[in-house]
Amino acid sequence: MNNKGYTLVELLAVIVIIALLGGIATISYISYQNTSAERVFETYMDNMHEATIMYFLEHGNEKPMNTGDVKTLYLNNLPIDKFNNPYEAGDYCVNSDSYVRVEYLKAVNDKGTSGLKYHVCLKCNRFNKCKDYTN
Predict the structure, then answer these.
(1) How far apart are alpha carbons 41 and 18 in whole angstroms?
(2) What pTM was estimated for this model as a whole?
(3) How far apart are CA 114 and CA 122, in angstroms?
């Protein structure tokens, strides 16, 4: 009897194992892409915060100076380049819904130091998140 080949069951087992490994690799890759896109958007939000600070350096008279003063700056008014949407190539996240709301706070910390609170909201096609910064 000649036993030089593989049985059908052995071949099917190998195919199932390869398919499982491929499925796990695909899921890991998609998760990695989404995590990377989230980090890109977080960087964009940090850039919006920094662009707002730069805007107030150039337009100091528009900066909130008294308790309760609020100023809202929209993304298309900030001195910043267009944000490329990592989910959709060629799409930019410049729309009228993304904004930075700046509010003057009298006491930011327990030392009683006054400062500004920046509420950054970035809204794109598949991303919508807000984050607070305090100076």
Answers:
(1) 35
(2) 0.72
(3) 26
